[in-house]
Amino acid sequence: MLGVSEDLHGPRRLAARLARLGPLFVKTGQYLALRPDLLPQAYCDALLGLVDDAPAVPWEAIEAVLATELGAPPREVFASIRTVPLAAGSLAQVHLAETRDGRRVAVKVQRPGIAASVARSLRWARRAGPLIDRGLALPITSGELLNEIEAWLREELDFANELDNQLALRDAVRGLAGVRVALPLSELSTVRVLTAEYLEGMPFSQLLRLVRLGDAEVIARRGFDVELLAERLIHATYHQMFTARFFHADPHPGNLIAMPGNVVGLVDCGLSARLGPRLEAAQKDFLAALYDDDSVRLYRALASVVQPGRDSDMAAFRREFVAAADAWSDRRYAQAQPDGNSDTAGFMVTVMQLSRRHHVGVPPALLAVYRTLLTVEAVAQQLGAEADLGSVGRRFFAGSEVERLLGQIEPAQAMRWLGSLIELVRTGPPQLQDLLTQLTEGQLVLTTQSRQSEIDRRAADRRAKLVALALVSLAPVLLLAADLGPGWTPWLLGALALLYGAMLILWWRLR
């Protein structure tokens, strides 16, 4: 952990220092905000508030990049384009434009020379690695951390990769209410330019500022419901991970748009991740077990995907894992945990910290899952919403299990079942009445042929009657479920009472 005090002054000082050092350090801070396994939660919360806001690049330089990448001056490519950017970040800036066919689009353009600047900064950071290691007591070396940051920035700088991710994410959320991914225009995009439909709304980073200022009136006037936005953000994240198995892995407040109707817009899709079937099933089982307070099943789900190494102490890892799971289970229903996390988020942080402590490898995709879930919950908390991973997750996984079971029923089979139920409702009452009449008059006889003794034949006959009555008792149960009306209820309940009484007598005689 950081070798500094964990009061609020330390996290704020670090965030302010990174902001003063420049945009690239802001990006590094945003990355560290997603690593609660490396930094205390207070630091992650402070760094999550960093806004990637850099001085705008002059239009002439942006115009040159657009002309080079698109093959013509921007005023020939677009019907119109604003020279003043909508937003300017450390890696790119965004300009509002209109296509020749009248669509409003956001044109994201890389800052000139940014790739070379990133490479130089990383080289400088690697030379300063020993100083960084001495100044920070992190559970990984500066070299490992810089490798992660370099890979992260490389993905962010590849706009062709981002376009593919954005198309995949649109498919991932297709038909999902309350979330939207902008449609990218491949014909107006390159590795350094990404053009996509413009999502009208307010960035979550701006919405969070209004929340911190306590300006509820402005938020209400804009028609935003922070509780609904938070719930939709978390639900959409679960859906991407465990239904589509492809998810936005950088849901930073600057990459989220609060749109009219409380729709959550997802932008900047450069960092996305895919879950394989095995990892998706294990993580879904992990979260379901967490909500069921099943520490043994929790460990089994995690152990199926972690990667023990030569220095791993799996016995100690399991012992501490189960102890931590039991401790979190005892506090599951608390409103908030001491570190500000919900039960789910706090346990995920614990898992990542234990894996680092005992040198147990965690697949990168699983780390991406944890980072993403922790980030969306942190955003929900900063919005002041009650929705968290646990409350939304329990509903999501319950609905997901129902969908899975229904998905196993073939349409033809379902239609046969429905037809049988309709026929039972139509013919059941008179048939049931005939059976009850035969039963009360002693006329219910099941013919059997046997070479057994008379006593054995009577016992066999009673067993057969008991089975028959058990089957017959299903009819009034189904008819009660069909809700034929209040007039039928007493008769059906009476029939059930008679059937169960007869079954009890037969069972007693068989003893």
Topology:
Blueprint: H1 9-21, H2 23-33, H3 41-48, H4 59-70, H5 74-77, E1 80-81, E2 87-88, E3 92-98, E4 104-110, H6 114-127, H7 129-135, H8 142-157, H9 159-172, E5 179-181, E6 193-197, E7 202-203, H10 204-212, H11 216-221, H12 226-244, E8 246-248, E9 256-259, E10 263-266, E11 272-274, H13 277-291, H14 295-303, E12 307-308, H15 314-330, H16 343-357, E13 360-361, H17 364-382, H18 389-407, H19 411-440, H20 454-472, H21 474-482, H22 489-510
Parallel strand pairs: 5-10
Antiparallel strand pairs: 1-3, 2-3, 3-4, 4-6, 7-9, 8-11, 9-10, 12-13
Helix pairs in contact: 1-2, 1-3, 2-3, 6-8, 12-17, 12-18, 13-14, 13-18, 14-15, 15-16, 16-17, 19-21, 20-22, 21-22
What does this structure look like?
By secondary structure, the protein is α+β, with helices and mostly antiparallel strands. Among the domains are: 1-50, no CATH class; 206-407, no CATH class; 411-510. Helices cover 60% and strands 9% of the residues. It is built from 22 helices and 13 strands. The chain has helices spanning 9-21, 23-33, 41-48, 59-70, 74-77, 114-127, 129-135, 142-157, 159-172, 204-212, 216-221, 226-244, 277-291, 295-303, 314-330, 343-357, 364-382, 389-407, 411-440, 454-472, 474-482, 489-510, and strands at 80-81, 87-88, 92-98, 104-110, 179-181, 193-197, 202-203, 246-248, 256-259, 263-266, 272-274, 307-308, 360-361. The strands form four sheets. Strands 1, 2, 3, 4 and 6 form a five-stranded antiparallel sheet that branches. It has a four-stranded mixed sheet with strand order 5-10-9-7. Strand 3 (92-98) and strand 4 (104-110) form a beta hairpin. Helix 12 crosses helix 18. The N and C termini lie far apart (70 Å). Mean pLDDT is 78; it is low at 1-7, 335-340 and 402-410.
